[in-house]
């Protein structure tokens, strides 16, 4: 009786999980399918799920019209660059907060997080003017700085949570063995925290890759990443749904593949410390 | 000796490269994503072949993103763009702010007098041209000739709103999924408010009186909004409050609309046999007017190329603008892709061309619609503003969108027409007072 009840519960949970998963994935699937349709089929009513004339024409048109690899390369540099610099700043910061806390640590952490609650548009014009005066508009350097700054609170928070789980005695032992602060962080703390750093890095690469507000507002032609590439295929006058879908598929494919292969690390990093 | 020679040769090479790089001018062009603009990007080799010292960089964006992006750049003197694609709404406002360079020194063979008078007026301030039109549009009625015939109704070339309502009723067959009329319902100053403002103009309404007091409590607005809602509720498609240009285009192309009143540029899409299932049975008529009212909506839009004052290559930018909006460019498009693909609504010579008239069955109606527009007097009543399906003041984007949300809510049944008009009146007056227009 108990076993039957447990099986039925498991089945319910499994079905529910699949339903949620498919619901979340459906827009992506629909985008990919639409990218293989003609513009006329893309707007057909009722829509066709699989039985249509599959075509690669949209990908050919998108590739001809846009220099995909330039946008792709900008996305890689901006997302990886901002994450690496963010980590270099966040590791010592998180170490200090996790192992040498002060009465103000909690407040500082909350303050850092509160900056994420600020609507970006509120600071758009000041940042635009600063960028203009520093010749950072439409530069990858400028975007790396902005992406690093907006993701820094998340990096610090994730690392802080991770470092808190590492026993302080190990670091103390290293100190007693004569390790200096720099060596303690680089040779003792970092190797133990590599899974946490890896998941933090992955999440932040994804966040920076998908960021569309600053990347659209601070770039023109030279530093524009894949978000600008997608935006160039949207149109309120004229049907570009199939081409827009092809461009979107090309833009999200690299990060989907990265996410697929690193899902274990991501889930581990995101749920670390959630259950004790 | 060898080292010295190498050093000298290296220095010469660096010098040569530097001078070559200095001679190269890069133009960054911000443009909107639509068929005509994309076509232009594909044909720019014709320009660069004649101007090897000019390199073109394109920033193509969706209309609303583009508008926000170029406004932000020009208002902060950012200097990111050398050529901007802007519309008839922005040109007078930006020219008055001295943000645009005057295009008063275009080459002699440009033939400014060939531009359609209504478009030229809309892009000029004090008789000086500040942007060159790339393609222009008004609004007109597109209707299914086969459905009209079946229903036994005739739509005259210059219909009244009574004609439209009668035809919409006769063509509606909801069981067959055919709706008599499809109109914009999605909220936004350039979405539903473009249509509703043009409709209100044709009913004799005005946005403001001469003291900048909102006029939504007038009989003309009440009548226009009630008729709009009645048509959409009785003869329109379901979920119309979220329909914009593309949604209606899709419905019309699939044969689900008896009539569609929208931008003239749509004529090219609905008569394209590759995408439209009703391509061979589309008729055209001018934007309707209220019986006895001498106003056919005054809808005018021209995507135009302008050179911002912040450009560091103004001469090269003007050369590009002159090329892209010239008669020669139109000829080039015709040679490469046929006359049907020529950018419409900018030059008189295009409409006088028999080859274009033959290739584009909608040419005459487009010209009639554009010629009927007077942007200096969009309403028949006395007004303190210029414009067309918009009011040419900077605050209109915000005000128009807020009013559009009210009318869209009325269409969705969330508020009554009376409440929507009252809310529009209150919010518009509040914003106008805040902006300092009212004493």
Automatic annotation (TrEMBL), chain A:
Entry's transmembrane regions: 12-33, 71-96, 108-131, 143-163, 184-209, 240-261
Keyword Transmembrane helix: yes
Subcellular location: Cell membrane
ABC transmembrane type-1 domain ranges (all copies): 72-262
Keyword Transport found: yes
Xref: Pfam families: BPD_transp_1 (PF00528)
UniProt keywords, alphabetically: Cell membrane, Membrane, Transmembrane, Transmembrane helix, Transport
Its membrane topology: Multi-pass membrane protein
Family: Belongs to the binding-protein-dependent transport system permease family.
Protein name: Carbohydrate ABC transporter permease
């Amino acid at each position: 009786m108990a076993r039957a009840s447990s099986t039925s519960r498991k089945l319910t949970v499994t079905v529910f999980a699949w339903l949620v998963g498919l619901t979340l994935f459906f827009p992506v699937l629909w985008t990919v399918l639409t990218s293989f349709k003609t513009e006329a089929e893309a707007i057909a009513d009722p829509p066709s799920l699989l039985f249509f004339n599959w075509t690669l024409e949209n990908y050919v048109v998108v590739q001809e019209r846009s220099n995909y690899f330039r946008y792709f390369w900008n996305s890689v540099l901006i997302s990886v660059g901002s994450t690496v610099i963010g980590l270099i700043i966040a590791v010592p910061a998180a170490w200090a907060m996790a192992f040498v806390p002060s009465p103000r640590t909690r407040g500082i952490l909350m303050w850092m997080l509160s900056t994420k609650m600020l609507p970006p548009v509120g600071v758009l014009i000041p940042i635009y003017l600063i960028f203009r005066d520093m010749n950072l508009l439409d530069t990858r350097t400028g975007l790396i700085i902005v992406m690093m700054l907006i993701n820094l609170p998340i990096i610090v928070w994730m690392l802080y949570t991770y470092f808190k789980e590492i026993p302080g005695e190990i670091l103390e032992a290293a100190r007693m063995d004569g390790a200096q602060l720099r060596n303690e962080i680089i040779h003792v703390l970092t190797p133990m925290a590599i899974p946490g750093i890896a998941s933090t890095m992955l999440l932040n690469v994804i966040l920076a890759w998908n960021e569309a507000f600053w990347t659209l507002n601070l770039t023109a032609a030279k530093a524009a990443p894949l978000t600008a590439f997608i935006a160039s295929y949207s149109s309120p006058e004229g049907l570009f749904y199939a081409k827009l879908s092809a461009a979107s598929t090309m833009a999200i494919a690299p990060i989907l593949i990265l996410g697929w292969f690193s899902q274990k690390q991501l889930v581990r990093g995101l749920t670390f410390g959630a259950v004790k | 000796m060898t080292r010295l020679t190498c050093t000298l040769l290296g220095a010469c090479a660096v010098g040569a490269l530097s001078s070559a790089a200095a001679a190269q001018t890069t133009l960054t062009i911000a443009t909107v994503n639509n068929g005509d603009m994309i076509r232009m990007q594909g044909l720019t080799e014709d320009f660069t072949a004649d101007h090897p010292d000019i390199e073109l960089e394109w920033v193509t964006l969706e209309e609303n993103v583009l508008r926000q992006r170029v406004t932000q750049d020009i208002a902060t003197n950012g200097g990111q763009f050398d050529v901007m694609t802007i519309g008839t709404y922005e040109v007078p406002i930006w020219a008055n702010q001295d943000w645009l360079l005057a295009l008063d020194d275009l080459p002699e063979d440009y033939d400014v007098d060939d531009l359609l008078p209504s478009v030229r007026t809309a892009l000029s301030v004090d008789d000086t041209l500040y942007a060159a039109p790339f393609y222009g549009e008004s609004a007109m009625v597109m209707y299914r000739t086969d459905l009209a015939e079946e229903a036994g109704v005739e739509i005259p070339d210059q219909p009244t709103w009574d004609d439209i309502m009668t035809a919409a009723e006769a063509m509606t067959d909801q069981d067959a999924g055919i709706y008599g009329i499809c109109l914009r319902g999605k909220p936004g100053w350039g979405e539903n408010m473009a249509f509703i403002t043009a409709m209100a103009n044709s009913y004799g309404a005005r946005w403001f009186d001469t003291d900048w007091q909102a006029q939504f409590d007038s009989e003309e607005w009440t009548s226009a909004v009630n008729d709009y809602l009645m048509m959409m509720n009785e003869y329109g498609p379901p979920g119309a409050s979220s329909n914009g240009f593309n949604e209606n285009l899709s419905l019309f192309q699939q044969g689900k609309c008896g009539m569609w009143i929208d931008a003239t540029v749509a004529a090219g899409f609905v008569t394209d046999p590759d995408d439209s299932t009703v391509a061979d049975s589309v008729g055209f008529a001018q934007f309707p007017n209220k019986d006895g009212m001498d106003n056919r909506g005054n809808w005018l839009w021209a995507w135009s190329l302008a050179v911002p004052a912040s450009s560091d290559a103004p001469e090269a930018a003007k050369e590009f603008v002159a090329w892209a909006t010239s008669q020669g460019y139109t000829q080039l498009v015709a040679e490469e892709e046929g006359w049907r693909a020529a950018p419409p609504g900018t030059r008189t010579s295009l409409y006088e061309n028999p080859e274009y008239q033959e290739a584009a069955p909608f040419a005459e109606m487009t010209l009639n619609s554009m010629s009927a527009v007077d942007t200096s007097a969009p309403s028949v009543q006395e007004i303190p503003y210029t414009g067309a399906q918009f009011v040419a003041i900077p605050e209109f984007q915000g005000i128009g969108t807020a009013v559009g949300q009210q009318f869209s809510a009325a269409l969705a049944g969330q508020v009554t027409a009376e409440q929507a008009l009252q809310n529009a009146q209150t919010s518009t007056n509040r914003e106008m007072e805040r902006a300092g227009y009212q004493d």
